[in-house]
Amino acid sequence: MLLLAGLLRRARPPRRPSVRRLSGLLDRYGFVPPASLTPHSASDDGGAKKRRPKKPPYRPPSSLDRGGRPAARSDLPFDFRFSYTESSPGDKPIGLREPKYSPFGPGRLDRPWTGLCAPAVDTTLRDAHADDPAPAAERELEEARRRERERVLGEPLTPAERAFLVSKCQKSRTKKQINLGRDGLTHNMLNDIHNHWKNDEAVRVKCLGVPTVDMQNVCHQLEDKTGGLIIHRHGGQLILYRGRHYNPKKRPFIPLMLWKPAEPVYPRLIKTTIEGLTVEETKEMRKKGLYVPVLTKLAKNGYYASLVPMVRDAFLTDELVRIDSKGLPKSDYRKIGVKLRDLVPCIIVSFDKEQIIVWRGKDYNGTIQDNTQKTSVSVLEEESAGAESENGDQEQASSDWASDECSQLSSSDEMPDDKSAISEADSD
Fold it and tell me: How far is Cα 120 from Cα 141, in angstroms, rounded to an integer?
């Protein structure tokens, strides 16, 4: 038996390796897979078919990527600044907070950025020792801008036309409005004004906050930089007219600032000693200023056009004036102090405890008015004072820009937040 079993084992064919089958359907129905599902290499068909190249990953568009295009050119004949009302070319900074990065983006504008502005004329052409430091090219730009503005404005508006445009821009008729806040007239706001002028002949501008201390400068800069004409002013509300011959298709090219440039470093506003006083007298004046009766309290984002005449009248009887600015941002009441220093004029004593304390100085003369107040380039016609809007607002003559300064301070609604951030006016 054992011998028979051994012979049977030898006669049995070798066992094939077992193949694991998941299903018998393939053998029963004779399914043949298509050629597309059969794995094969490129070498099987001689490399005739090549794989399709992969698509590059999606890259979102960027405003900084010029795509090889040349830098844009703008023919506007003035220096590009972030704010035209809150930055004065006469104030010389002592340094910059960051390198001279152009806020227009790298390679987007053919004008270089100096850290303060993008000048229309190369600054290397200036001669500091000449009688007139402005080169002839700048004078030619000013003259060309004046002639172009006169051409676009055309003939003066009649009283009926003026009254119609003013009534059309009232709050009861339209909600379209441009808000001029604490940063003043910014460069990008010029583009917003021209966008409004595409469909409307006039646009309403509401001014609140720090720039309203000097409304004359706001009106002058609006007319000078936009080329329009202010046909109505009631408090901080202005109606800006585009002109009879304005063509939206031929509007000037205004490159937009992509970010807000850093504010330069200016000299200290509050010095250790006031000029003409000793250290002890300066300390005593600062302590005394905190106990002086408050002249007025400033509302946040209010209307401050009557602040300068109020301070001038107060200096007729008192040598120190205190203005309560609690609740205002630090940069706001510092800017207001600088405007009072230049417009009244006066000497800034302290900003302690959110109070603006100013001193009239030893040689103060109440009859001397500030020389910086000049008549605006374009004045409203006197006949416009009789035109009335539908909601009863009387038009005012533009020849008297300062007539608004005697109105009371307004603690009106707060200004909507501007899309640009608040900048520090001065550094301690």
Answer: 9
CATH of span 155-260: 3.30.110.60
CATH 3.40.50.800: does it fit domain 268-359? no
Q: Looking at the whole model, is its pTM more than 0.90?
A: no
Are 155-260 and 268-359 in the same CATH fold? yes
Q: What residue segments make up the domains of the chain, in order of their start?
A: 155-260, 268-359
Per-residue pLDDT of the chain (428 residues; tens, 9 = 90+): 556 666 656 655 666 555 555 566 666 776 676 776 656 554 555 555 677 888 888 887 776 777 677 888 888 888 899 999 998 777 788 888 888 889 998 888 888 898 889 988 776 655 555 555 556 777 788 888 889 999 999 999 999 999 999 999 999 999 999 999 999 999 999 999 999 999 999 999 999 999 999 999 999 999 999 999 999 999 899 999 999 999 999 998 999 999 999 988 988 888 888 888 889 999 999 999 999 999 999 999 999 999 999 999 999 999 999 999 999 999 999 999 999 999 998 999 999 999 999 999 887 776 554 443 433 333 333 333 333 333 344 333 333 443 343 333 333 333 333 333 334 444 44
Report helix, strand or coil for 2: helix
CB 201 within 8 A of CB 244: no
Q: Side by side, which strands form the sheet with 202-207?
A: 178-180, 202-207, 237-241, 229-234
The tokens describing 416, both together, are: 């909507």
Q: Which residues contact 413 (CB under 8 A, 6 or more apart)?
A: 301
